[in-house]
Write a structure and sequence with these properties.
The protein has a single domain, classed as Thiol Ester Dehydrase, Chain A. The model has no long low-confidence stretch (mean pLDDT 95). The protein has helices spanning 25-41, 45-50, 123-129; strands at 2-9, 53-54, 57-64, 73-80, 87-96, 99-109, 111-112, 117-118. It starts with a strand and ends in an 8-residue tail after the last helix. A 5-stranded antiparallel sheet has the order 1-4-5-6-3, covered by helices on one side. It has a 3-stranded antiparallel sheet with strand order 2-7-8. A hairpin with a 2-residue loop joins strand 5 (87-96) and strand 6 (99-109). The longest helix has 17 residues, at 25-41. By secondary structure, it is of the alpha+beta class.
Length: 137
Protein backbone atom coordinates (compact mmCIF):
# COMPACT_ATOMS: atom_id res chain seq x y z
CA UNK A 1 0.00 0.00 0.00
CA UNK A 2 1.25 3.46 -0.90
CA UNK A 3 -0.09 6.18 1.34
CA UNK A 4 0.19 9.91 1.86
CA UNK A 5 -1.16 12.35 4.39
CA UNK A 6 -1.99 16.03 4.12
CA UNK A 7 -4.05 18.52 6.09
CA UNK A 8 -6.57 21.24 5.33
CA UNK A 9 -8.27 23.74 7.59
CA UNK A 10 -12.05 24.02 7.22
CA UNK A 11 -13.06 27.43 5.90
CA UNK A 12 -16.33 29.10 6.78
CA UNK A 13 -17.29 28.73 3.09
CA UNK A 14 -17.04 24.93 3.50
CA UNK A 15 -19.87 24.83 6.04
CA UNK A 16 -23.64 24.79 5.69
CA UNK A 17 -26.31 26.62 7.67
CA UNK A 18 -25.85 24.15 10.55
CA UNK A 19 -22.12 24.97 10.78
CA UNK A 20 -21.12 21.51 9.56
CA UNK A 21 -18.83 20.87 6.59
CA UNK A 22 -21.11 20.48 3.58
CA UNK A 23 -21.01 16.95 2.16
CA UNK A 24 -19.97 18.10 -1.33
CA UNK A 25 -16.70 19.41 0.13
CA UNK A 26 -15.54 15.90 0.95
CA UNK A 27 -14.81 15.22 -2.72
CA UNK A 28 -12.52 18.27 -2.62
CA UNK A 29 -10.73 16.78 0.39
CA UNK A 30 -10.44 13.49 -1.51
CA UNK A 31 -8.90 15.40 -4.42
CA UNK A 32 -6.37 17.02 -2.09
CA UNK A 33 -5.38 13.56 -0.86
CA UNK A 34 -5.17 12.11 -4.37
CA UNK A 35 -3.03 14.98 -5.67
CA UNK A 36 -0.62 14.61 -2.75
CA UNK A 37 -0.46 10.83 -3.23
CA UNK A 38 0.48 11.21 -6.90
CA UNK A 39 3.05 13.83 -5.92
CA UNK A 40 4.55 11.45 -3.33
CA UNK A 41 4.76 8.65 -5.91
CA UNK A 42 6.70 11.05 -8.14
CA UNK A 43 4.17 11.72 -10.89
CA UNK A 44 2.26 14.90 -9.99
CA UNK A 45 -1.05 15.47 -11.73
CA UNK A 46 0.35 18.50 -13.55
CA UNK A 47 3.06 16.33 -15.11
CA UNK A 48 0.44 13.75 -16.07
CA UNK A 49 -1.54 16.48 -17.86
CA UNK A 50 1.65 17.68 -19.58
CA UNK A 51 1.96 14.11 -20.85
CA UNK A 52 -1.60 14.51 -22.25
CA UNK A 53 -3.17 12.11 -19.75
CA UNK A 54 -6.19 12.63 -17.52
CA UNK A 55 -7.95 10.85 -14.69
CA UNK A 56 -11.70 11.52 -14.89
CA UNK A 57 -13.76 10.32 -11.95
CA UNK A 58 -15.97 7.36 -12.86
CA UNK A 59 -17.14 6.21 -9.43
CA UNK A 60 -17.04 7.41 -5.84
CA UNK A 61 -18.15 6.24 -2.43
CA UNK A 62 -18.28 8.25 0.79
CA UNK A 63 -19.27 7.12 4.26
CA UNK A 64 -19.86 9.96 6.69
CA UNK A 65 -18.94 8.94 10.23
CA UNK A 66 -18.99 12.19 12.22
CA UNK A 67 -19.19 15.91 11.40
CA UNK A 68 -16.42 18.44 10.89
CA UNK A 69 -16.84 22.12 11.70
CA UNK A 70 -15.46 25.53 10.79
CA UNK A 71 -11.76 25.92 11.68
CA UNK A 72 -11.21 22.17 12.23
CA UNK A 73 -8.01 20.81 10.75
CA UNK A 74 -8.78 17.77 8.65
CA UNK A 75 -6.11 15.15 8.09
CA UNK A 76 -6.57 13.47 4.72
CA UNK A 77 -5.00 10.04 4.32
CA UNK A 78 -4.97 8.62 0.80
CA UNK A 79 -4.07 5.04 -0.12
CA UNK A 80 -3.22 3.19 -3.31
CA UNK A 81 -3.63 -0.49 -2.48
CA UNK A 82 -3.66 -2.05 -5.95
CA UNK A 83 -1.52 -1.65 -9.04
CA UNK A 84 -3.46 0.48 -11.56
CA UNK A 85 -4.77 -0.94 -14.81
CA UNK A 86 -6.86 1.26 -17.11
CA UNK A 87 -8.41 2.33 -13.81
CA UNK A 88 -6.93 3.53 -10.57
CA UNK A 89 -8.69 3.32 -7.21
CA UNK A 90 -7.67 5.63 -4.38
CA UNK A 91 -9.04 5.07 -0.87
CA UNK A 92 -9.37 7.76 1.80
CA UNK A 93 -9.73 8.28 5.54
CA UNK A 94 -10.40 11.75 6.93
CA UNK A 95 -9.82 12.68 10.56
CA UNK A 96 -10.20 15.66 12.87
CA UNK A 97 -7.49 14.93 15.43
CA UNK A 98 -8.09 11.23 16.27
CA UNK A 99 -11.79 11.29 15.32
CA UNK A 100 -12.67 9.59 12.03
CA UNK A 101 -15.07 11.76 10.06
CA UNK A 102 -15.26 10.10 6.62
CA UNK A 103 -14.02 7.14 4.61
CA UNK A 104 -14.41 6.36 0.95
CA UNK A 105 -12.80 5.90 -2.41
CA UNK A 106 -12.63 7.34 -5.90
CA UNK A 107 -12.22 5.29 -9.06
CA UNK A 108 -10.68 6.96 -12.11
CA UNK A 109 -10.03 5.94 -15.68
CA UNK A 110 -6.83 6.87 -17.48
CA UNK A 111 -7.62 8.75 -20.69
CA UNK A 112 -5.66 10.48 -23.44
CA UNK A 113 -6.58 14.15 -23.24
CA UNK A 114 -6.40 14.68 -27.00
CA UNK A 115 -8.96 11.93 -27.74
CA UNK A 116 -10.71 11.39 -24.39
CA UNK A 117 -10.35 7.64 -25.00
CA UNK A 118 -9.34 5.22 -22.23
CA UNK A 119 -5.74 4.10 -22.16
CA UNK A 120 -3.36 2.08 -20.03
CA UNK A 121 -1.55 3.80 -17.19
CA UNK A 122 1.63 5.51 -18.31
CA UNK A 123 4.81 3.45 -18.09
CA UNK A 124 6.38 6.31 -16.15
CA UNK A 125 3.80 5.87 -13.37
CA UNK A 126 4.10 2.07 -13.36
CA UNK A 127 7.89 2.34 -13.04
CA UNK A 128 7.55 4.71 -10.09
CA UNK A 129 5.02 2.42 -8.43
CA UNK A 130 7.44 -0.52 -8.73
CA UNK A 131 9.38 1.00 -5.81
CA UNK A 132 6.36 0.14 -3.68
CA UNK A 133 5.47 -3.15 -5.37
CA UNK A 134 5.89 -5.28 -2.26
CA UNK A 135 3.35 -3.00 -0.52
CA UNK A 136 0.57 -3.40 -3.12
CA UNK A 137 -1.98 -6.21 -3.26
Amino acid sequence: MINSSTTSRVLYAHTDKMGIVNNERFLEFFEMGRVELLRKIGYPYKEMENDMLGLPLIETYLKFVSPAYYDDIITINAYLKEKPTVRIKIEYELFVEERLICTGYTLHSFIKLNTFKPCRPPEKLLELIKRYENQLL
